[in-house]
Amino acid sequence: MLDRRIIHALRVHGRAGFREMAAVLGVSDQTVARRYRTLRERAGVRVVARPDPIRLGYERWIIRLHTAPGAAEPIAAALARRPDTTWVSIMSAGTEIGCNVEVPVVGDRDSLLLQKLPRTPRLVSVSAHCVIHSFAGGAVGPDNLQLPLTPAEVAGLAPPPADDDRPAAVADSDRPLLDALSLDGRLTHAQLATATGWSESAVRRRLDDLIRTGTLYFDVEVDPDRLGFHARVLLWLAVAPSRLASVGAALASHEEIVFAAATTGATNVVATVICSDMEALYRYLTERVGVLDGVERVETAPLLRHVKQVGSVR
């Protein structure tokens, strides 16, 4: 339970100090530091800080690609190298790819969707789904598997609330800082200064500004297999439009859900599910998803491997 509490604490404020977390968690700072190091080594825990696409008003697209046998790996690798993709996964029998693209409204959307992808050799089909509302995961907040802290404990850790009067924004000059934070959101100011070539005081000022304007949010990457969750599946749901909000709210309350959003397209809800095994997934689909009013059809695509996760190539 302490490990889950530490992960939740990092999700609330990824740069919180060990002493600060220890005061909230009721243990020593040495214990927190030791358990954090163990989580990094044994559970693949990685804290990242990323620009908040919702706050920045970015368009978010989930792209589903079907490839010829043997073509998924190079196509997924090419997608992972793009700076606008945040996750890229190989699914099903190794002939399906799912990826998330975040671009400014005036960004490279047309080039990706209309030119580059259709010309990719051995690409069988492409469907692009624009995210129109987020229910769980990502910048929305921790999923229910990561919620062992009480509201009072969360309040004791949370960074200052974003100043809504100040617009969130990133500049080209922020790229070195954002690149470093996408690899490790807990790098010290000295380490960030080395990575960016800035002074420590410049790093501190800009990082504080990005956090206070809500431009950055913290996420935590965890290897589910090392925590006993061996069934990872992407769900594509066709939901009656009048039931989108209620189905989304229901999914967001399930601890099996780590991400859920409403999208455009024939399947208008996408969700990422993790379960202990396939039998648990069967029970989840039949007892919790299939009974939701408004769910008309469900497609499942097992996640075989993440090529890129939380903005970093694996």
UniProtKB/TrEMBL annotation:
InterPro entries in the cross-refs: AsnC-type_HTH_dom, Dimeric_a/b-barrel, Tscrpt_reg_AsnC-like, Tscrpt_reg_AsnC/Lrp_C, WH-like_DNA-bd_sf, WH_DNA-bd_sf
Its BP terms in the Gene Ontology are: response to amino acid
A single MF term (Gene Ontology): sequence-specific DNA binding
Q: Which GO terms describe its cellular component?
A: cytosol
Q: Which domain of life is it from?
A: Bacteria
Q: Give the record's keywords alphabetically.
A: DNA-binding, Transcription, Transcription regulation
Q: Which residues form the HTH asnC-type domain?
A: 1-59, 170-230
Q: What Pfam families does the record point to?
A: AsnC_trans_reg, HTH_AsnC-type
The identity of this protein, by name, is AsnC family transcriptional regulator
Source organism per entry reads Virgisporangium aurantiacum
